[in-house]
Design a protein that fits this description.
Number of helices: 17
Low-confidence stretches: none
Distance between the termini: 81 Å
Number of strands: 20
Radius of gyration: 37 Å
Structural class: alpha+beta
Mean pLDDT: 92
Helix content: 25-40%
Largest sheet: 7 strands, mixed
Strand order of the largest sheet: 18-17-16-15-14-19-20
Length: 515
């Protein structure tokens, strides 16, 4: 519609007959006049407030221009040209009907709120919107107008959505399916912790065992293999590390799940693709009542993508999720709503660093960390920012200090860590605050920040740990540096560890942090 041309049409004035009619319309709010303009292509509706007419004001409150493709409303309460795009249903302080409650009959109904000035004008409106009207419409042409305006609104919204989805499609279309090697790695390596050996004693000393990994079943001698429910063990058939399950004590379903991230290169960076892997193990009782009779059921799907670029060397991320777009009923890639908790994930290392070799992450060595900890979830998105801030984290990853690297990545506030890492250090010894000997000891035990703290304190007070002594002390006392200092004043570390070793033969060492 040509707004300039429409606004040039003279503003309507109420006739004396309309003012007279207004006094007889009771609680109605508007009188409407109708006419066809622009070679009968546009229907013009003028709305006069009845209360204003009663006070002698003859100006219309607003007027609406309706074609067969669009509509627009002009506010006539101001001398300036002011356009409104809302439908009648969405306009402020306007409604075709009023809700009415009949107290005597205890019944609700709707009362028409607008009055058409003449039967001829009513016919004009009905004929113009004949295709949107139905014979049983209770409120005449107004219901048909509502259907028309709703259709226009749907088209406007679809056009608006298309602009956004087209931009997303331009980003997503070049991304191809992840390779088979990735999915094989997920189940063979990343989900290797979810392997089970199910056993049932068939006679004294003999048990029928079933491995969920190699699918083999056989009789094993319980004198040669320890079988205890929920303990870790080794499969006698394939040698895999497994969790042992007593068949009679299994829950109906055992769920295992992890998030995995696959890195795909893009023109200006790379994309983190998040896959959710889910494994379901069924008990015998559950298998009897379900259709799918397989012991193990697996599923993997891609649910989120994070597109990374590096303007001026700084990481910039745009996230998307797979879901229903704007409640329109269609599943597709949508802007991230923060509904998918996938940042704790396992990084697929086999296509790195090639996938991000043209970005600042080329030498990050995160693939080394992921290869060393293939079943451990970390916040790898945080690792990007941590590496940009602290490029020497590469050294920590390549030295096999996996737990230190994980602590740096997952910790939002480094001040809460026990052993401090000096990110401004020039050498690995300055970064860790250790001598060459103690650095090698930290490597040997793959120590975390607590063990780093023990080594830092021991170095300050002149104690020298051996790897086995350090592990023994930490397993018994945790990160108790006060005890370490007291022991240094009263006896030697060698005597402390010797005493611990002797006592632990009679009193098994508890879990970490329990003395």
């Amino acid at each position: 519609m040509e707004k300039r041309k429409l606004s040039a049409i003279p503003r309507p004035i109420a006739t004396p007959e309309m003012i007279e009619i207004a006094d007889r319309l009771g609680d109605m709010r508007h009188i409407v006049t109708a006419e066809l303009i622009d070679d009968k292509k546009i229907l013009l509706l003028n709305f006069f407030e009845i209360q204003a007419l009663k006070k002698g004001k003859t100006e219309a409150a607003f007027r609406t221009f309706l074609s067969h493709e669009d509509y627009i409303t002009q506010d006539l309460k101001t001398s300036k040209t002011k356009w409104l795009t809302a439908s009648f249903h969405g306009m402020y302080n306007f409604s075709f009907t009023d809700y009415v409650w009949n107290q005597q009959e205890h019944k609700s109904s709707y009362r028409l709120n607008v009055f058409m000035r003449s039967d001829e004008e009513l016919k004009i409106v009905k004929d113009f919107f004949r295709e949107y009207s139905m014979p049983d419409d209770e409120y005449g042409p107004w219901t048909g107008i509502h259907r028309f305006q709703q259709e226009v609104l749907d088209k406007r919204l679809a056009k608006k959505h298309k602009k956004e989805t087209d931009k997303i499609d331009v980003i997503m279309n070049p991304i191809k399916d992840a390779p088979k090697e990735f999915f094989d790695w997920v189940w063979d390596t990343g989900m290797s912790f979810a392997r089970y050996l199910i056993y049932k004693e068939v006679k004294k000393g003999k048990a029928l065992c079933e491995c969920t990994h190699c699918k083999k079943t056989g009789i094993v001698d319980r004198k040669k293999i320890r079988l205890r429910n929920n303990e870790k063990g080794i499969c006698p058939f394939c040698g895999s590390r497994v969790t042992i399950k007593a068949k009679g004590r299994m829950p109906a379903q055992t769920h295992d799940e992890r998030w995995f991230v696959y890195v795909d290169p893009t023109k200006d960076g790379f994309v983190f693709r998040y896959f959710h892997a889910h494994q379901l193990m069924k008990s015998d009782g559950y298998l009897d009542v379900v259709i799918h009779k397989e012991r193990i059921e697996r599923d993997i799907s891609e649910n989120s993508r994070a597109i990374y670029t590096f303007p001026k060397g700084k990481p910039k991320c745009e996230s998307y999720e797979w879901g229903v777009y704007k409640q329109r009923g269609d599943c597709r890639w949508c802007p991230d709503q923060g509904k998918i908790a996938c940042m704790e994930c396992i990084l697929y290392p086999r296509n790195l660093p090639q996938a991000w070799e043209h970005t600042p992450m080329k030498y990050s060595a995160l693939e080394v960390l992921s290869t060393n900890l293939p079943t451990v979830s970390m916040r790898y998105e945080d690792a990007i920012e941590k590496y940009i801030e602290f490029p020497k984290m590469e050294w920590i990853c390549k030295m096999g200090l996996n737990k230190i690297a994980k602590g740096i990545i997952n910790s939002r506030y480094s001040g809460y860590q026990t052993g401090k890492v000096n990110i401004k250090g020039n050498t690995i010894y300055e970064i860790l605050g250790l001598t060459k000997v103690n650095t090698r000891i930290l490597q040997a035990v793959d120590g975390n920040h607590d063990i780093l703290r023990l080594l830092q304190v021991a170095q300050q007070i002149g104690l020298q740990f051996k790897p086995e002594q350090l592990k023994e002390y930490y397993e018994t006392f945790g990160c108790n540096t006060d005890l370490l200092k007291q022991a240094n004043r009263k006896t030697t570390l060698h005597k402390i560890v010797k005493y611990i070793t002797k006592e632990s033969e009679n009193y098994p060492i508890g879990e970490q942090g329990v003395c």
